[in-house]
Write a structure and sequence with these properties.
With 439 residues, the chain is mostly helical. Helix content is 67%, strand content 1%. It has a two-stranded antiparallel ribbon.
């Protein structure tokens, strides 16, 4: 009953947000149902990824939903759930096949290490329920099928401090909303579209005007995700024993035997301490203070980052490490939207994180200089994020180009200087050959 209620409410919310455009979510969902039910499980994840990402690109390019972010958020969240489910089914099938091959080659019994949380042949109604189940808003956070299933099969939802955690989140939400409204009133986004902004103000003023908008962009996402997670906590969704080390998006990662024991034994369950770490979307300290861009990226929308690491990076293909990382950046850009703004963001972050790794490799181990290097990383990180803010908040690509032309693409020239300096200091022919790109 709880599952049917949540699914029905989710479909209603999608209709209220999307109106007649709800048919896009229906096509994405039923397309994935057909793929999961009919296609070879070995290639299931590739087919599901190709179909869903192509449909998202169609919505961005042809239907032009960039100006309707809430509609895009709904379909992006549904896409992550459905394609993630296809990846999990395909991975389980691959593990079983490998175990069967080992069994045929050896007379010794083989332990099949397959997570049984996902059915081998899920029913269409189960897939629809997972895609539309409404706990919070459809913006997020992302969660695996196992977390969804545990909500109905384990007693943890009534054992956590749900009401206390929810009240704490709502207090933070009120503070975020007040601060956002104050900033929005004093720093309107419409100024970017006015000609006098590029005539009466200098390049330094235009650049610094991005700072309050960067804060507003972060606050907007904090507001949405805090609202999502507060509804989740009130419903008892995503609560697990703290000893199982639940991770955002993934779920329990340690002492799984304790998890099974607590789920079946009320006495053991009552002895445990619980948390909602699965629902954590941001790590404030790393997001604000860094010091590196890598730290900020890892602390932003953690569950979505988990999806791209666990599926796009690790299981999309068996190519070399660098190819898989480039593919992950590409899939992330297409998921966000194939636009000029997203291309600028992805390419700039790519080069910036590469340079951080390169300078870290060139850095001489010296404790006395460690703080100086971290301050340098933090300053360049803040410069980069401030510079990219127009790409995050302005929908019109011509206005974005006009803005960057007015400040002479200053940060990109700074990146070129950093690249030349790294080339001069590096002893290898290609400074980016051994770098880790995944945020």
């Amino acid at each position: 009953m709880k599952r049917n209620y949540g699914t029905g409410l989710g479909i209603l919310i999608v209709y209220l947000i999307c109106g007649t455009h709800i048919y896009h979510s229906v096509l994405i969902t039923w397309g994935n149902i057909i793929i999961i039910k009919c296609c070879d499980k070995r290639y299931l994840h590739h087919i599901s990824l190709s179909y869903t990402w192509t449909y998202l690109a169609y919505m961005h390019i042809i239907e032009k939903y960039q100006s309707l972010p809430y509609i895009l958020w709904v379909h992006q969240a549904i896409a992550l759930r459905l394609v993630g489910m296809a990846f999990e089914i395909s991975l389980n099938e691959r593990i079983k096949n490998e175990a069967q091959e080992q069994k045929n080659q050896s007379s010794k019994p083989t332990v099949v290490n397959v997570e049984n949380s996902i059915p081998e042949d899920p029913k269409a109604i189960e897939i629809i329920a997972y895609a539309y189940f409404f706990i919070g808003l459809h913006k997020g956070p992302y969660y695996r099928w196992k977390i969804f299933q545990d909500h109905f099969e384990t007693p943890f939802g009534v054992l956590g401090d749900c009401r206390v955690i929810t009240e704490q989140k709502l207090k933070k939400l009120a503070a975020y909303v007040i601060l956002f409204m104050v900033l929005r009133t004093n720093f309107p986004i419409e100024i970017y579209y006015q000609d006098n902004f590029y005539v009466e103000y200098g390049a330094d003023s235009r650049y610094l005007y991005n700072l309050p908008h960067l804060v507003m962009y972060c606050l907007q996402h904090q507001i949405v995700m805090t609202l999502c997670s507060s509804i989740c906590t009130e419903a008892g969704f995503g609560v697990y024993p703290a000893k199982c080390n639940p991770l955002p998006g993934h779920g329990p990662s340690a002492r799984l035997s304790l998890l099974k024991l607590a789920a079946s034994n009320n006495d053991v369950a009552l002895e445990q301490e619980y948390n909602f770490a699965v629902l954590r979307s941001f790590e404030f300290d790393k997001m604000v203070f860094g010091p590196k861009m890598q730290d900020t990226l890892r602390a932003w929308d953690i569950s979505t980052r988990y999806w791209f690491y666990a599926h796009a990076y690790k299981n999309t293909c068996k190519a070399q490490k660098q190819i898989r990382k480039l593919l992950t950046y590409l899939l992330w850009s297409l998921w966000c939207g194939p636009s000029l703004q997203q291309f600028i963001i992805a390419s700039t972050l790519y080069v910036h994180t590469q340079l951080e790794k390169e300078y870290a490799a060139l850095q001489v181990p010296n404790e006395s200089m460690k703080v100086t290097w971290e301050v340098g990383y933090s300053i360049t990180r803040l410069l980069c994020l401030t510079y990219l803010t127009p790409c995050l908040i302005i929908q019109n690509p011509m206005v974005v180009l006009k803005y960057y032309n007015s400040i002479l693409w200053m940060y990109h020239f700074l990146l070129i200087v950093f690249i030349i300096a790294a080339l001069l200091r590096s002893d290898v022919s290609h400074p980016f050959s051994s770098l880790d790109l995944i945020p």
